[in-house]
Amino acid sequence: MADGDVETRSNRGQWENRVEGSPELSQSYASRDEAVDAGRELAATLGSQHVVVDSEPTGVITDEDPASGDDR
């Protein structure tokens, strides 16, 4: 990926748009459709490419609690 390209991907149950070389522009979304639409618009605004990395939906947000000490 080149700087400014937008990648939409699943990350532990949430969907995120990651901007190569500009992490401050990256955002998370609750649904795949919402993330894909926003990623497409962001890429158009930046004049860059948009790539969607598909994955199997889990239906669960799995933010880990660092205080739990559970390192499965």
Automatic annotation (TrEMBL):
Q: Which Pfam families match?
A: DUF2188
Q: Spans of biased composition, class Acidic residues?
A: 62-72
Which stretches does UniProt call biased (Basic and acidic residues)? Answer: 1-21, 31-40
User: In terms of domain of life, where is this protein from?
Assistant: Bacteria
Where is the segment annotated Disordered? 1-72
InterPro entries named in the record: DUF2188
- Name-wise, this protein is DUF2188 domain-containing protein
Q: Which organism does this record belong to?
A: Agromyces intestinalis
